[in-house]
Amino acid sequence: MHTSTETIDCPLCLGVGSLKRSEILDRLGVKDLARVAQLSAEEVFGLLQRKHSEDSQHVWARFDSELTKRTAEIELRHRSEIQSLTVQNTTLTCRVEDQLRDFAELRERNQKLEAEMSKAARRGKLEELSFEDEARTWAGIAVSEKLPRNGDFILAYRDSSGAPVEPRMLIDNKDKAIVGENDIDKLVRDARDRSIPVAVLVSRTEDQLRQVDKEGRWSRKDGVWILRTTRQWFPRDLDVLKPLFERMRLHGADFLEKNAAIADEVRRTFADLDRIDSELRKATKAISSASGLVTKYRGRLQELCDGVGRKMPSGCELPTARIG
After folding, report:
1. Distance between CA atoms of residues 164 and 171, nearest Å
2. What H or E segment, with its residue span, contains residue 133?
């Protein structure tokens, strides 16, 4: 195909001059179809390009609009989730703060409880030491050092040379609201572990013993003789048991098992001594009360006598007794 710029020999001038093909066609009144086609194609491509550009701009506009819409929806959804998480975080923070306060209160209570337990332990330790110091003052009694386990001390009578003699006694001091059966059972186990035939449970005061303990202060359980006593009663109880222990030393540890009547007599003796002690306390209380009343009424009589002396007229004289 020849282009519009191709030159040809002019048929009129026989090649004298040169004309462009398009000029010749224009002079002859003939349209350049190739040129028209080219221009038409260019116009079509231009139209297509403009349409494509417009479509592209429209698509991008719709994309921007949809992107903005979706972004707003996502932002709204995330804002709602953030608000929910914020509320949950606030709730969790409050719960954590409450838990921390509870932990702080528990820690404080625990510290107070540990302090009270430490005080109780010290009181118990002082109780054992004071018992040890007191027991060492008793004549004819040997006291061991504080035992690391299975009881507190071991007591025994001394012979004429001062040496401890059998049978030994395992001592367990108790300072609690009330003595329980488990305390008795543990004392029996400790005595059996140490092969000691006599065990003594010593409470701080009389009211810490149960009624069953007071009624049966001397008894036997699982092969161990048990004395239930108090700090106040124990020295007196040792005096009562001394001749019995001498018999056990001479005739063997099963002396009481073979002589049940003697064991019963020991129980009755302790019961009688406890009643006498109770009556003595009542008598002491009555004497103290009577002494207080005497002092009170003596003071009242003195006040009456002083009052009568002040009210008597100055010209009056009391009659005097004649002598001889």
Report:
1. 15
2. helix 33-135
Residue-by-residue DSSP string for 240-309 = HHHHHHHHHHHH-TTHHHH-HHHHHHHHHHHHHHHHHHHHHHHHHHHHHHHHHHHHHHHHHHHHHHHHHH
CA angle 315–318–320, rounded 5-degree value: 130
Whether the full predicted model's pTM is greater than 0.70, yes or no, is no
Query: In sequence order, which residues have a C-beta less than 8 Å from that of residue 22 and are 6 or more positions away?
Result: 4, 5, 32, 35
Partners of 19 in beta bridges: 8
Question: Which contiguous run of DSSP H or E holds residue 221?
Answer: strand 218-221
The pLDDT of residue 129 is 55
Closest residue by Cα to residue 244 from 231, 258, 232: 258
Q: What does the pLDDT look like over 280-311, one tens digit per residue?
A: 777 777 777 767 766 776 677 677 676 665 55
pLDDT surpasses 80 at 192 = yes
